[in-house]
Amino acid sequence: MPETLIKVDLKQSPYENEKIHNRWHPDIPMATWVKPGDEFILETYDWTGGYIQNNDSADDVRDVDLSTVHFLSGPVGVKGAEPGDLLVVELLDVGAKDDSLWGFNGFFSKKNGGGFLTEHFPQAQKSIWDFHGLFTTSRHVPNVKFAGLIHPGLIGCLPDPKMLAMWNEREVDFIATQPDRVPPLANPPFAKTSHPGSAKGELAAKIGAEGARTVPPREHGGNCDIKDLSRGSKIYFPVYVDGAGLSVGDLHFSQGDGEITFCGAIEMAGWVHMKVELIKGGMAKYGVKNPIFKPSPITPQYNDYLIFEGISVDEYGKQHYLDVHVAYRQACLNAIEYLTKFGYSKAQAYAILGTAPVQGHISGVVDIPNACATLWLPTQIFDFDIRPTASGPIQAVKQGIEMPLSPDL
Amino acid sequence: MPETLIKVDLKQSPYENEKIHNRWHPDIPMATWVKPGDEFILETYDWTGGYIQNNDSADDVRDVDLSTVHFLSGPVGVKGAEPGDLLVVELLDVGAKDDSLWGFNGFFSKKNGGGFLTEHFPQAQKSIWDFHGLFTTSRHVPNVKFAGLIHPGLIGCLPDPKMLAMWNEREVDFIATQPDRVPPLANPPFAKTSHPGSAKGELAAKIGAEGARTVPPREHGGNCDIKDLSRGSKIYFPVYVDGAGLSVGDLHFSQGDGEITFCGAIEMAGWVHMKVELIKGGMAKYGVKNPIFKPSPITPQYNDYLIFEGISVDEYGKQHYLDVHVAYRQACLNAIEYLTKFGYSKAQAYAILGTAPVQGHISGVVDIPNACATLWLPTQIFDFDIRPTASGPIQAVKQGIEMPLSPDL
Amino acid sequence: MPETLIKVDLKQSPYENEKIHNRWHPDIPMATWVKPGDEFILETYDWTGGYIQNNDSADDVRDVDLSTVHFLSGPVGVKGAEPGDLLVVELLDVGAKDDSLWGFNGFFSKKNGGGFLTEHFPQAQKSIWDFHGLFTTSRHVPNVKFAGLIHPGLIGCLPDPKMLAMWNEREVDFIATQPDRVPPLANPPFAKTSHPGSAKGELAAKIGAEGARTVPPREHGGNCDIKDLSRGSKIYFPVYVDGAGLSVGDLHFSQGDGEITFCGAIEMAGWVHMKVELIKGGMAKYGVKNPIFKPSPITPQYNDYLIFEGISVDEYGKQHYLDVHVAYRQACLNAIEYLTKFGYSKAQAYAILGTAPVQGHISGVVDIPNACATLWLPTQIFDFDIRPTASGPIQAVKQGIEMPLSPDL
Amino acid sequence: MPETLIKVDLKQSPYENEKIHNRWHPDIPMATWVKPGDEFILETYDWTGGYIQNNDSADDVRDVDLSTVHFLSGPVGVKGAEPGDLLVVELLDVGAKDDSLWGFNGFFSKKNGGGFLTEHFPQAQKSIWDFHGLFTTSRHVPNVKFAGLIHPGLIGCLPDPKMLAMWNEREVDFIATQPDRVPPLANPPFAKTSHPGSAKGELAAKIGAEGARTVPPREHGGNCDIKDLSRGSKIYFPVYVDGAGLSVGDLHFSQGDGEITFCGAIEMAGWVHMKVELIKGGMAKYGVKNPIFKPSPITPQYNDYLIFEGISVDEYGKQHYLDVHVAYRQACLNAIEYLTKFGYSKAQAYAILGTAPVQGHISGVVDIPNACATLWLPTQIFDFDIRPTASGPIQAVKQGIEMPLSPDL
């Protein structure tokens, strides 16, 4: 078994683990070092560091302090890595921790970050998903079972000071355009809940003051939430600092394209088994700005889909210009409406779109003024036939099962 | 052989063919009638009605009058279809016309509609693609060959007067928000180049004055440019008028998600072999607003991809809020930059993204402020290895081949 | 459109068409010549040359003279091809003739060739399959519809005299081991029904006397009946004579692995669009004795299967030693028995296994004394659920439909 | 984590573990009991019980006593299971033991069981395969890496006395037809090395005297070595005794169709996570004699193959009648010859065919006198291009690496 270089104890606060951090900053000390060619394992907390529990209340989803996330394992220093290189990371395997074979999905309250459909689901809700080997089911969402497309939602290398400065300037300026918005347009550095890894004293304070929050994906990758970055895939990351500083966390047992429920996919604690190599000078050789990757040869093979279309006219009839975000929202709303005809609650339908291996395609982006997006719902994950027939939908979904909801206080 | 209910003669102007129309309007006379259960064939012009030629000049792409498009075959009346039904359309097969085994892809001049990357490719360019049975190659884009994912870019049923009024109001109001924009935000009715099918006199004038332009996808489907609506798929269309009035056109031999080059996919004249059925009252039974569909069991099976990420910070460094359109543009620009390292011109790379069976996924839309989109480039369509290696890219692409470019006059 | 180098008129006897032949012999005159790099089209008869008709009687299957088959289009001479080369053939497309959009499947009478399950189906039966674009259905086999995996059952190059002599000696000697067997162990040359292409007089007589029958696959390929040699595939054929002499015929709209019904797959008249290239000296360079090929990127993608096992103990309880033929027969009989539980007749079930894109895998061949073979039945071709459930099989199959049967006279 | 009902200690002899057995007999005591709906885990030895070691000598492959195999975990009693039921087993996951992340492949000496190509590889050889998460590589077979298609080679329920008697009679009679054959035609009961689980005294002696050897697949399933019975699949087993008595072992990290190397696939110790259900009376309801199964939605997705054909004329030129075993052997020999052109030794090529996710299809079984079989070699498992080109094969395979060989003493 390759060595586990970072271990996590789910009973311990992530703040007590010096090999965990929750900000991006070039000065976060390397938690461990490896050489090109090495295979190793990193354990990870779930993105909230254990705040969300396996129970039937959504209070934790309502109350979670989002300034604490994401708890990442790393940074891993790679000997010989220099700015301008590409760090090649093979995700040889990814799994849940044996003592934590479950995950959660939830919708944040609109007041606490909301989500893609927050206007339609303004209050905190949660579903718990149990893992059965390669598969998952939920006691809160009946009649659906699917194989996990296991992946890290968040992975990337440390920024250098120049890139960090650019991020902070870009996002702080952006927040300033609508400073009172709820939820905010972006999240600025926030020292109070910063976890700077093993940094102490002044260095820790500096990281707290300057460290970029981990929420958005950025040039280095980071919180991309790309479901296809799954175990078995191979990723080429830009390197900005000596040693690269690779960190990973926010593992998902499964997710639909878009991670539309925001909290999030099926979120879990777990481990990542990986191998690293270098392409020296690879950023210039291949013209790489953002990470690129090759998908895994082993992913769930659902190929019978029901596909929903959406255009960039919003649910209130307003015209938007080639706006794929709006178009995808319409496709999602259309799919939710459809699923309710078989007996699902809207919340359950939304949870399915957030967790199952749903594809979201950018189908048309030039036919002014309407973008067209499609949502691909795999039919084989349901234990009944969801396809349209002349006789109409059957009421197959078990009734009396609800997703926990916790209204704002 | 099922009957060919609509024939087109590529040497004849589409305006002379009464079973062709280029506007959406409830009063366009049915070109032909069928019964549920019928199989039949419709021939179609290419979307420009033959304006773009198989030659080595992009003058036609530069000069085409976009108020004339799209030339559609239909409407086909379906006996018994009533508002509120779902019209089930099986695309049993789709192909090019035997006397026209080629297609075109182009970029419009920025002054004439532009495209997804019009800031980067502001002038008219064209590539011609020859069909070799199931495959296509281009004399203007070397070292690439792929199987066609043949589909109609545009298909849908006639709107009723209420829906037509809503479309026109919505879009005309939208244009009014930036009336002088080039290209415009949307296209209003335009009588001069209207083709109302077999309508004559006052009826033709009415259709010309009120008929919705065919460019955008709308609630009825229409110009969705969804590559996966390919031959073998089964579509469920909302019905708004008695007889449904199904029209189809804008056939594509292949297209990447987004149809980013706008002019367009690999555009061709051809034929569609289809079968229709009805689900009575299906719109309410299944809560359907936009069309839904099941994909084909026969599509090109490329499964080895190189995937490019993009986030919603634009190419000038500007921050956008969860804007998938911007994110996908960055992924496309990243892929173009990458392909140039192997010897392609930027225009050739752009043409590949517009024509090959490229996937565009909405990967993350909740991680404020950045959306994340991915572009999936199939590696097996190239006759050399495009994957990153430690030794760097080889110069495999044949040099001295260029895509025709026609500067604005 | 590439040139159609060989045309067939389905109303004309294949014996009257000089570009058709039904024996393998080095002296059959080339019907046409092409150059490496050429694309061209060959039309073909169905394998029986039109003997089997689209009707509801199996008399023709019972009475067909199998000494006449297979009617092949060719040979096509390829300029520059020499013995020892590999002839690279791309099957750019394959289709049915527009005036013949149907095919047949049948079981021969045991007295006239029989088939894989001739002990269980000793009498002639037939089913007719209609083509609906990419799909097929049969009026004799209800509740099943599938996409065609279109391919030529028979394709290969002319043998040289030495190879021909080896074939004849090998097979004639083999027949001599059980000379009175019905059906015979093999088919020797048979002059009476020989069609030597354009050869006349003495040459025709020589070909009739020596020409190898086309029934078995041999070193050159020939009647391999490999369903995966489908349109879009690329085949590397050994070349034995100057000019190669490529012939093709026996087109199938679809077939299950094994072509177990023998008469045969879904047999059809049609056309093949192909392109040829050469690898000079390729047989030695790559150590090639039998053809090799790359499968098509476009084939029906059914991925939900019900898989039946069989072992090499025959249906009468007799033990055979690692005999995959016996094991596959058991898997087929198991599948037939299973399908009857849903209401199919045994003959209909057998026809489905012979025509649908069924896979036959050699699963274990070393575990003495039993080989294990598996038959993979795609579940998505049925319009009802064929998977086992606790409630038992539903009687979904439409009753009162039978496959024509013609007893021996 | 579901409970691990059977544990194995790889440092302990399997004969000392009472929950292991190596014979089929109705009287083997249940090792543990479960209820329908239960999930549980069984650990397993490798099939030889740890005899083959992770080293660079093939002495162990040469010397292994095959009368000891296979060491199975079980039998598991399922409450309520009765003869005539179908036992539904979901393989929720299968993996290697954490302390044993490697497997072996070997060829037996012809004197000790041989294998599919024993005439060509008459001496014992071995390769060791290391597991890297989802992937495997071998220090003895360079330039190849693939994802594991993990599965149990052997799984099934206990026979009842009548079935056991039939097996023994059938096989003993068969041995008697060539009693002096080396290797023998089959393996009779053999008391000396019998492991009867927890049975003692007279019962143990009875099991030793009567217990069927585990080598061949039989009506109940057993040693089917079906690579597609992989983790994620769902199997329906006939039940013959009260409680069913499910046993499993012989885990494979990967295997090619046929398990042609016999010793075997990539053999490993590991664990199986499974769930059981019952279909009461299912054998009659569905007409099931041998097990049936549904394949997994998660398996390696290699779809670019090079396919080799073989016909039933053996390598010495002898004609066989529709013999798929001979045909598949020719296809294998053709593939081995081909791979040597790139620098592999014949033994390495043979090992690749035995271990990689190679498909073996029964392509034609009716075209007298020749069967046709195909071997599908995935091209994406090699780190160089193995496809034929006009320039001939490159010498890409690292030289100086050999598979250990141990001549017979």
From TrEMBL, chains A, B, C, D:
Its EC number is 3.5.1.49. The gene is fmdA. Keywords: Hydrolase. InterPro entries: FmdA_AmdA, FormamaseFmdA. Gene3D superfamilies: Acetamidase/Formamidase-like domains (2.60.120.580). This is Formamidase. GO terms for molecular function: formamidase activity. SUPFAM superfamilies: Acetamidase/Formamidase-like (SSF141130).
